[in-house]
Amino acid sequence: MTMTKSARIAAALCMVFIATGCGRVENASQAANGVAQATRQAGNAVANTVQRAGQATDRVGQAMGDQAAVTFRQANDIASHLVRSGYASRAIAFVMGDVAYVAIQAPSAAGSEQKNKAQISAYVTSAFPAIRKVYVSENPDVYARFQNFQRMMQQGHPVQGVWQNFKTSVARMFPS
């Protein structure tokens, strides 16, 4: 009798596991994979929407005649030139029209001659004839802010928005 009772209890437990889905691992992992895929698709959709919104904002800025935002760009060529030439250990540059804004970290004093801002400006205007005016800063706070603008550009933020923030900051960093 006890064997029959044990068999009935075991059979009942098996039925409970089957009915509740506890014994079906593949169904659970399929559901988890479905949720993960839906999450990835939603994330991609959001990223694509943000990118399209940024592009639309840039087009609106162009249509509204903000030519400064149209010509605003990160100038890796100028920054890398300054580093290769020994004017800076690290540099970030942005160009708007014929004006370059440069934030540098000066090279270490050991074995290198410290260049002043006028020398750096003269070097940039001679190496890049389209540049007529250069603003240079060795301030670590300015460099950190330029890194933030650089990161925003790399992440695909709308140029119009980055330009507006940049323009406001530059007015404070490089007063005329």
UniProtKB/TrEMBL annotation:
Phylogenetic classification of the source organism: Bacteria, Bacillati, Bacillota, Bacilli, Bacillales
One Pfam family this sequence matches: Spore_YhcN_YlaJ
Species: Alicyclobacillus acidocaldarius subsp. acidocaldarius (strain ATCC 27009 / DSM 446 / BCRC 14685 / JCM 5260 / KCTC 1825 / NBRC 15652 / NCIMB 11725 / NRRL B-14509 / 104-IA)
Name by which UniProt lists this protein: Sporulation lipoprotein YhcN/YlaJ-like protein
Residues of the signal peptide: 1-21
Annotated InterPro entries: Spore_lipoprot_YhcN/YlaJ-like
Protein keywords: Lipoprotein, Signal
